[in-house]
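Q: What structure does this chain adopt?
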Amino acid sequence: MEFLHECTPYEADALRAMLSIAAGKSTVETMPQYDRSALNRYLNFGCDKEATGTDSVRAHRQTRALELMKSVSQYVGKEEIIDITTALLTVSSDRQDIQTVLNNLPKLQTSGTSHNIGNVPSNASMPK
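A:
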């Protein structure tokens, strides 16, 4: 339980997906959809409505991928980290996944609307 409490949102599921790749049970191509979704939730977390395009979303996802690489590196050897790095770079840069993020980001509120003031976006970053 202590480990899970220390994980950031979606990190435990993303770690599980990466450890499956490290163990040789899957690859990016054979990864079950639930693992791909878990990984994408982790990579997208904190991506906000100020993301202005593909490059912004890709940069956010790659930053998150580096954080996940650091987390997973304590559980695998040097050989496995190569497979994990390849998988994370592939998924974090995937055009279709990035377009999905862009399509699902909430719209910027104009100053004339106040119905959402005080609400935190569902994708907002949360401290560890």
